[in-house]
Amino acid sequence: MSRAVRRSAPLALTLALALPATLAPPAAALPSVPTAPSAVVPTAVEVDDADYDAYVFPYFAGEGEDGEKIYLAVSESDDPTTWHTLNDGEPILESTLGTEGLRDPFLIRHPETGVYYLIATDLQIYGGGDFGTAQETGSRSMMVWSSPDLVSWSEQSEIELAPENAGNLWAPEAHWDAEAGEFVVYWASALYPDDVAPEDRDINTSYQRMMYATTPDFSEGSFSEPQLWIDMDRGEGRGMIDSTIAEIPGDDGSTYYRLTKDEADYTVRQEVSDDLRRTQGVTDGDGWDLIAEQIGVGQPNPWGGTFTSGEGPTMFPSLTDDRWYLMIDQPSYHGGEGYLLFETDDLASGDWTSRPDVELPSNPRHGTVLPITAAEQTAVIEAYQPELLAEGVSLDRSELSLEPGDSRTLQATVTPITAVDRSVTWSSDDESVATVDADGVVTAVAEGSATITATSNGGHGTASATVTVAAATPAPLPEDAWVDEFEGDALDPRWTVEREEASAWSLGGGALTLQSQPGDTYQGDNSYENMFLVDVPAGDFVAQTSLEATPTADFQGAGIMAWQDHDNYVRAGLTHASVFANGPVGIETGTETSAAYAATFAAREDSTGETIRLERTGDEFTVSVWDDVEWTQVATTTLAPGTTQIGLYALAAGSAPSHEVVFDYFALVEPEGADIVPDGEFTLAGPDGRYLVDDGGLALVDERPAAATSFEATAAGGEDGTSPVTLATPDGLPLVLDGDRLTVGAEGDEAAVVRLSDVGGGTLAVLVGDQALVEGAEGALVLGDPAEAARLVLVPVSVTEHQLAIDADAERTDMSDDLYGAFYEDINYAADGGIYAELVRNRSFEFNGADNGSFTGLTAWEQVGGGDIAVESDEAEWLNESNRFYLTVDSDGTTGVANSSYNEGVAVEDGASYDASVWARSAVAQDLTVQVVSADGETVHATGTIAVDGSDEWKQYETELTVSGTANDARFQVVSGAEGTLRLDMVSLFPQDTWVGPVNGKSPLRKDLAEMVEELNPKFLRFPGGCVTNVGTFDTYLGSDGQDRTRTYQWKETIGPVEERPTNWNFWGYNQSYGIGYLEYMEWAEDLGAFPLPVVSVGANGCGSSIPEMHPGDENFDRWVQDTVDLIEFAKGDVDTEWGAVRAELGHPEPFELPYIGLGNEENTTTFEENFPAFRDAIEAEWPDVTIISNSGPDDTGARFDELWEFNRAQGVDMVDEHYYNDPSWFLQNTERYDSYDREGPHVFLGEYASRGNTWGNALAEAAYMTGLERNSDLVELASYAPMFANEDYVQWTAANMMYFDNDESWGTANYYNQRLFMNNVGDEVVPSEHTGPAAPGNGPLDGGVFLSTWATQAAYDDVVVTDSSSGDVLFSESFDDAAAVAENWAPVAGSWAVQDGEYIQSGTANDARSVPTDGYDVDWSNYTLELDARKISGNEGFLVGFAAGGPNDYYWWNLGGWNNTRSVLQRADGGSAGEVAALEGQALETGRDYQVKVVVDGRTIELYLDGELQLTYTEPAEKSLYQVVTHDEDTGEMIVKVVNPGASTARTDVSVTGAFEVASDVAVTEMVADPSAANTKADKTQVVPVDRTWDGGANAFAYDFPAHSVTFLRLAEAEDELVEVTPERPTWTDECGPANVTGAPLPEVEGVEYVETRKNDGGVKVVATPLEGYVLSDKPSSTKNPESWTWTKGDSGEECPPEYPAWDASTVYTAGDRVSFEGSVFEATWWTRGDEPGASPYSSWQEIAETAEGVAVWTPSRIFTAGDVVVHDGETYTAKWWTRNQVPASSPWGPWEVSAG
């Protein structure tokens, strides 16, 4: 075959993952190239392409401990399908600079000098890195080496190449531009606005661009300025990366073929251009020509299945013909195991065929393949793997053990690999024992031993292996083990299943079968399911199991788990993990300590089953496997004591699919539980959280007692290793035995001797002699069989003493009537796929790549049947101007489409009805089939037909579907009914059972989500954002002729028919249909009893956006101002105004209440201040009664915050919107934030706040803060938590969300229930109260160690001294004179640190390039002075001096020269990133100048000095041990005592109420108590919820125990005067119908009693007697329905009283207001109805109407009442406080009803 003639320096592609990288300093010029080795290697200028005889392949090996280094392989001659890993599989290059991680190596040869250059990504994921951070504040450098021969390598150089606003530099490659005589170097970078600080970057607001620069030789200072090469936004956080180039010279110039990873779908695309430097997406009209997308997708891969996605392409030519080869890296997070080889006969075609059968190097990941000469191949092998050149034959194993009938393949290697004939002949010396075929497949025949020999056919020698054939023996069980052989159909009761998914496991055939579920226990990813565990006492154990499984995808694994909790465990199992060098299948032993995971791996090639033993001795765990005849140890590891459970797991982690695991048995030898002698006060609890009480004997109860039943233990001797104790209460009363119960006795009684014995799982049993406490009826703990002992949890009790004084007579502060509201933003798919009940996703086929790079017009749609479908946009066929895309179906009569909706699919409920509709047009009349089917299409849940009339005009067609069967993963299909062309648009499936509002009736809102919002009782609804409000362009859809897809939210585009609302890009990376528009928002608010609070843009940037802003005089400016004024008119205007008329035309003639409007949201720039006055003035001129709310930016402090507040004061605005998301400690320390705000200045709207998490600890911090909001509610008039909603599968905002949901379930977070508690118990006045008590535990002096760091800056430090401020003792000192001592005493975390000339130099470009003294986080220094010298060498910023450091995310640092050398800032980190607490503006550091830095830590006060001058003083606010506020509810007359105890101790509190308020004994208590780490989840939705109870200990002075980690509300009612008891007399009767259906008979006259008489619908009579004020009825058994009233009824005597209204008829249509009689009652229709039986449900379309003789409404469950309505119920008169239905009067003290006065 002829060889192809190509350029002498073929190019290869590299691909980069999303990796974290660090920044490095400018590298020195590359050192001179070392001398070449002795072998004479030709240079490139001496080599013709025809001389290439092999390939070299540098690569990295993954995210393991040694993976991010450079490895090398060579091909076998010119065959790219066979490779040899060099250097014994060890790396040839490692990084000592930057992040010290290397990825994506790219190798290129200089065509003129012959020098090789290797460049690589500076990124390390191993050890805690993550791809998100790496794209925000990663390295902007690439690492460079040079070599003359691929053997001798220069020193490493670090070249900072990406611009300063880049978050990373990934996958650098280069191409030689012969005409320019230079290399074009290209890479991927995420770019951010210059005014967004690095710590504020979020990759979801940016995306990867390909950039390029040029250099002649990769030396420092030789690179040109970076330029954009590819700029294509492919969706939220997604762009284009990993480009690689192949050049084909031609007579008219070269043709360049480029492969690039498209992050829209994580596949590779191929393009072509005749200009290497042509841009794409950078300027109008630019771009390369697309050849093909999704290269390789669908091709078979070597690990099973087909290729789906990948990255890091490397492309190279064949050395024997005209083919080209391509490798694409498909790592585990893309569903693969590494590189996959493809080939093509036509590079220009884009058609690539996979070669899954090739022999690649060990674990290759993103690298380069480059042709080399035979001489170069030989030189490389001589240097790195000389045995490959030695003559001989070797086998991959020398011994082989098989059972009769088994087969195993031996691999023979003949060397030298350059030999002409490397084939072998196989033979067996005893074929009666084992045979071998020509391919080395050995088959065992019978027991015995045989020798298998491979003989080189080229005369290079022989090699042999011994085969032993023997029958396998089963593994012996541990002696004295408890064995579960999984017989029967129920699990042994010892097992518990954590996070059970019942459908994924089963018992049968003597085995436990698990289908592994998505999820993991790895570090923070605690998403596992079906963990099977048994409790074990602390101590040594042996656990053993036998399992069968075939793991085929990375991170499928199953085995034994030794469990403390999900952050501390040891697991050992059969796992597929290609990240390990000897993988992919083997035994992975993983150890996680404090959420840090480490693993070892023992290969078990092709294993489909293992018997595994996990043994613990002390802290050491040993893992062994049974190898047919003996145990083989495969791993040891250590874990501190604390294992309380052992069991089995099966995981499908990462993107792995589920696999089946069959456990044959589980055997356990467990330790005998030791006795426990508690130290200090404690109580016991049930493992289910029930409380211990003593009610004549110990018992477990659900309701928390007012005071804990607690004890202290005293040792009572003991023998044979036992430790019995006696127990007594804290005041000395003994626990005694009384019959078969333990109870607290009297002083002097003899205490019972008990043993508290560890029974595993963190539980204990109480043993009394030879008996134990067992659980009896109603939770009673009685003596019984120890085998049935109750498992109890020991709970330490810590009590602190507090006082709370409430002064009822002191002057009170009026509270805002509208304090708490709801903030709604379309984030996390809150609208479409959320509260908007539409089930069809992308119903109008308008999805677009501008919304999200992965979106197309067919997103969520797939074709069914034959024919063809396509999304088109022909103006002549548009549905309307605002809805331009539609689906064209070229049907063969069976063609249709299926929609997958959101989450798992379409969620439908058995028996429910749904409205199906579609806009359609066709020239062919036909019946469309619309149906709901299962995901596999096998089950039809509902079906219907729609008749399209054949007019070829757009028309909407509708039908109703009633579903059979419940499903959450169905599909909605529309199938054509005839051949020909059919066009579809606005395909809809809408549940009929949506939320019904009390004012506007049936809504488009998903019922369960709307009900959760309704239960909050919000006073306002802020919408539509948030960043959705003010990020985007300023044209309209029609104004841009349908081209602008990134428009700022414009309210006029969201009203009117839904098919005429133009869809739009959403800031959060998806599409918004505007199905919920401004009218729906306002109606929603109205139905909630809230007022709408819209927020609009004033044309300035917010949320970090860099979209061009709008200014006065711009084309759209005046329109935006007028649109804002029109918005208010739309809401409030009379029907004779322009926009009030529009509102009326849309069905809502009544104006809405609109007291406020918000202008702007978190603006970054002063354009806000420029534009605000025009909007404000226009609003005030037209609507002076509307309060304008300005804003203060995105933070709670800082320069922009101060700047905007100053502006707002100067403008005289009434209210300012503040937003902040902070750590819990901030909220605990800043509850007095608003105490000092000027009451005469603008008031505050706290529009967005949350504590960055959804645990109970987060909610506790927010509750504490809310006590401060209420105390200051005269100033803070409005407040709303944010965000409200999050669809669990589409979360963009991960910090915290109030409510989560999927397509058929919803659940509130702990934060939600806390908000609901406060929002429903506000009050009207703040009652003065004062708390006294101990200081909070965390209020001591600031303490911790020190450290040094920089941010993208190079600096020198010297003479670090820490001195005790009191004694003058030197606590720490470092002069950096001894490099060896520094290496021992300092631990660099990031950056490049070295001792030079007596200074400690940081020369890297990393963000937070930190170095910490050894054990620096472990010291507890307080009250000290830190002094040091510092000098800036180069870079963007200055110094970071850390102190009071208790951990990597627990510290203060002084950021000198931060924010691009413009500020001096004190920052604090408390569990997360550092946040600003104090700052000086306009502070810059001089490069090259020495500074003296001093930090004085005095208690909780920090003083910062620079060159001897005080710069900043800051005192950290103290947390409180208890937070409280008391409010008065005017409606109920109650005082609401709200107490938050965030600490770990019970707050035993003496509460006193002074003044003219006598406290009633009955107190309504609502409390929330949980561990701070507890969180509500989909699996456990109510782990943290409020609990209501009544306590009878109320008085003007009482003691109350507020539990640890609790929020408690006490409603103190005022004691009532003593009532006079009266007995009513029975009434007399007549049987006349009489006027108004009343008997007309005289009623008794009894003092203090009121009688009400009504005629029943059946003709009978009802009389109700109720007491007047000051009286109470005697409590006599009679026909009494309620102890507060007496009722007598008399049936019809036979006389017929004709009903006033016609009888209900099922076939009649009724509309709102129609009345009917039905079964003796009168009902009124609420809305249109037919066939809906009255009285069937209190929420149906009918309301039962009843009245007293006086015309007063009688309460009925189905009747709707609104604020002010008066009703009679059980003899009492009530007034509605707000809209209500089916809420019984007096059923709750804070419900919708209040007793009417008088």
TrEMBL record:
<dbReference type="Pfam" id="PF02368">
    <property type="entry name" value="Big_2"/>
</dbReference>
<dbReference type="Pfam" id="PF17851">
    <property type="entry name" value="GH43_C2"/>
</dbReference>
<feature type="domain" description="Chitin-binding type-3">
    <location>
        <begin position="1701"/>
        <end position="1745"/>
    </location>
</feature>
<dbReference type="InterPro" id="IPR003343">
    <property type="entry name" value="Big_2"/>
</dbReference>
<dbReference type="InterPro" id="IPR023296">
    <property type="entry name" value="Glyco_hydro_beta-prop_sf"/>
</dbReference>
<dbReference type="InterPro" id="IPR003610">
    <property type="entry name" value="CBM5/12"/>
</dbReference>
<dbReference type="Pfam" id="PF02018">
    <property type="entry name" value="CBM_4_9"/>
</dbReference>
<dbReference type="InterPro" id="IPR013320">
    <property type="entry name" value="ConA-like_dom_sf"/>
</dbReference>
<dbReference type="Pfam" id="PF02839">
    <property type="entry name" value="CBM_5_12"/>
</dbReference>
<protein>
    <recommendedName>
        <fullName>non-reducing end alpha-L-arabinofuranosidase</fullName>
        <ecNumber>3.2.1.55</ecNumber>
    </recommendedName>
</protein>
<comment type="similarity">
    <text>Belongs to the glycosyl hydrolase 51 family.</text>
</comment>
<feature type="compositionally biased region" description="Polar residues">
    <location>
        <begin position="1676"/>
        <end position="1690"/>
    </location>
</feature>
<dbReference type="InterPro" id="IPR003305">
    <property type="entry name" value="CenC_carb-bd"/>
</dbReference>
<dbReference type="InterPro" id="IPR036573">
    <property type="entry name" value="CBM_sf_5/12"/>
</dbReference>
<dbReference type="InterPro" id="IPR055235">
    <property type="entry name" value="ASD1_cat"/>
</dbReference>
<dbReference type="InterPro" id="IPR041542">
    <property type="entry name" value="GH43_C2"/>
</dbReference>
<feature type="domain" description="BIG2">
    <location>
        <begin position="389"/>
        <end position="466"/>
    </location>
</feature>
<dbReference type="InterPro" id="IPR008964">
    <property type="entry name" value="Invasin/intimin_cell_adhesion"/>
</dbReference>
<keyword id="KW-0378">Hydrolase</keyword>
<dbReference type="Pfam" id="PF06964">
    <property type="entry name" value="Alpha-L-AF_C"/>
</dbReference>
<dbReference type="InterPro" id="IPR008979">
    <property type="entry name" value="Galactose-bd-like_sf"/>
</dbReference>
<keyword id="KW-0732">Signal</keyword>
<feature type="domain" description="Alpha-L-arabinofuranosidase C-terminal">
    <location>
        <begin position="1247"/>
        <end position="1606"/>
    </location>
</feature>
<dbReference type="Pfam" id="PF22848">
    <property type="entry name" value="ASD1_dom"/>
</dbReference>
<dbReference type="InterPro" id="IPR017853">
    <property type="entry name" value="GH"/>
</dbReference>
<feature type="region of interest" description="Disordered">
    <location>
        <begin position="1675"/>
        <end position="1697"/>
    </location>
</feature>
<feature type="signal peptide">
    <location>
        <begin position="1"/>
        <end position="29"/>
    </location>
</feature>
<dbReference type="InterPro" id="IPR051563">
    <property type="entry name" value="Glycosyl_Hydrolase_51"/>
</dbReference>
<keyword id="KW-0326">Glycosidase</keyword>
<feature type="domain" description="Chitin-binding type-3">
    <location>
        <begin position="1752"/>
        <end position="1796"/>
    </location>
</feature>
<dbReference type="InterPro" id="IPR010720">
    <property type="entry name" value="Alpha-L-AF_C"/>
</dbReference>
